[in-house]
Amino acid sequence: EHAQEADRYRVKIQSTELFHVGPFYTRPLLDLLQIKEASPEFVASARWHLERRERNARGVACFARFDVATHGRGFVDQGLFITERDHEAVDANHLHLISVALNHDRSGHAELQAMRWLLQTLEADVPLHDTSARSEVFGQMSLHVTHYPCLSCLGALAQLRGLFPRLELFLSFDWTPGAARGS
Fold first, then answer.
1. pLDDT tens across 22-81, in order?
2. How much of the chain exceeds pLDDT 90, in percent?
3. How far apart are the first and last CA of the chain?
4. b vs e for 36-63, b when ≥16 Cβ sit within 10 Å of the residue's Cβ?
5. CA-based torsion, 133, 135, 137, 143: positive or negative
6. What is the three-state SS of the chain?
7. How many angstroms separate the CA atoms of 130 and 127, rounded?
């Protein structure tokens, strides 16, 4: 049943024939998905980390940080730097997040890897298949990306939001006119 739902989801996203909604429509869409703008302090910190790490990196990079808790146990990470080039082949349905191939495989996008990092951290203590257990997870996750997210990553953010209704998600992104994702 999950595989059929995943296939229906992929078909719906692919049927839009869009890869992204662009830099001007991404923020309003994130607002509709209840994914807030990351704080200026987080953005400044993320940019500082990214500037130091990105010199040799190619592709889109993401800096992520989370502070979540469940059943009296807290999980805090001071930050993770990820680039699209850091990933290995990943099952598109791995850990409950569905990646959609829009002209190419998007499962290695930096934002998706950051969300998987959170899920892998929680996986040992939270049965991810259990809706009740997931509803006990609360806190926040912030991401800063060097390019606006694609439609597949926006969908994965919405999926993460649905998995953990008490988790606040924050996302900010940079954009340079004329710069393609991966340049």
1. 888 899 989 998 999 999 999 999 999 888 875 556 678 889 999 999 877 888 777 887
2. 31
3. 39
4. eebeeebbebbbebbeeebeebebbbbb
5. positive
6. CHHHHHHHHHHHHHHCCCCCCHHHHHHHHHHHCCCECCCHHHHHHHHHHHHHHHHHCCCCEEEEEEEEEECCEEEEEEEEEEEHHHCCCCCCCHHHCCCCCCCCCCCCCHHHHHHHHHHHHHHCCCCCCCHHHHCCCEEEEEEEECCCCCHHHHHHHHHHHHHCCCEEEEEEECCCCCCCCCC
7. 6
> Taking the CA atoms of the chain, what radius of gyration do you get in angstroms?
16
Chain length of the chain: 183
Tokens 């429509």 belong to residue: 25
Contact 92, 133 (CB under 8 A): no
Specify the range with the lowest mean pLDDT, choosing from 2-6, 48-52, 83-87, 136-140.
Answer: 83-87
Amino acid code (one letter) for 93? N
The answer to whether 146 and 62 have CB atoms below 8 angstroms apart is yes
